[in-house]
């Protein structure tokens, strides 16, 4: 396994990029420690697959270097990087049995037969496919095919990193949670460095110890799932992570006082700086109904099982709140309160208030 370092990395698909907008990746500096579980999370087109292909050697970056355990591998082909990759669509041989599919990467490297048998048995046990070893892969269900594809990536014990590129996209929703749980369990057992690329926040947050959130070719925040939820450093992170996402509300700052729709709002910490586009960020979980506060009219009530989500109009701006069941009906006049220590001020997208101690 390896520590992976990305240094001053930039990439453009154009032969002569003229400015930042011409780059699919806009200067990435990143360290992934040996044995960690990481996720690249962001919407389609944000650059995460480009970054994965650069790490694997399928793309050479326009600028910057890639290091594995301090060794520069930027110019090495994929075969010399010792990487295992699991793709969106299962890469297995339908005419082979499950056993033969798991053996194949090891036989290709002329590993001795006894070691092959040992590794295949270990991986089959981890994946819970022991009873399928002599079944032809063509007869497997899609989720089991993807299990075998994962197994082919994990069967080698000499890889620097195992990379997963949207591996659950083609899996039925009711089976995704099983494979997510299995993948997390596999990481805890094999302790391999794993990088998981996805646009699905649930997949990223349940798998990774640390998540890299990307937007428009840039990293906007790196953190644990708890850090990303509790304290988004950018409005994109707040909006993208969470269901529903963070309320991002237009705000005005005058002499250190913050107002929203003409009403004063208390925020965490001191307000610093001036100018730029200012916005409030508060998660629906920290918006409550109150006797006093921001006057609002409920425009929508959605019962989502454990709780209800309401949307209320404060002036011309919609605000979402997570509340208990049957507390309010559509059309009701209410007051909303924002929890001050969870209400953050953002300037031009970036957080500007400091956390209360």
Strand order of the largest sheet: 6-7-8-3-9-10
Principal-axis shape: globular
Q: How do the SSEs run, as a string of H and E?
A: EEEHEEEHHHEHEHEEHHEEEEEEEEEEEE
**Strand tally, please?**
22
Number of helices: 8
- Structural domains: how many: 2
Rg from alpha-carbon coordinates:
24 Å
State the CATH topology of the largest domain.
Answer: Rossmann fold
Full CATH superfamily name of the largest domain: P-loop containing nucleotide triphosphate hydrolases
Separation, N- and C-terminal Cα atoms = 39 Å
What is the helix fraction of residues, given as a range? 10-25%
Nearest-integer average pLDDT: 90
CATH top level label of the largest domain: Alpha Beta
Low-confidence segments, given as residue ranges, are: none
Strand content: 25-35%
Q: Structural class of the helices, strands and pairings?
A: alpha+beta
Shape-level CATH architecture of the largest domain: 3-Layer(aba) Sandwich
Largest sheet: 6 strands, mixed
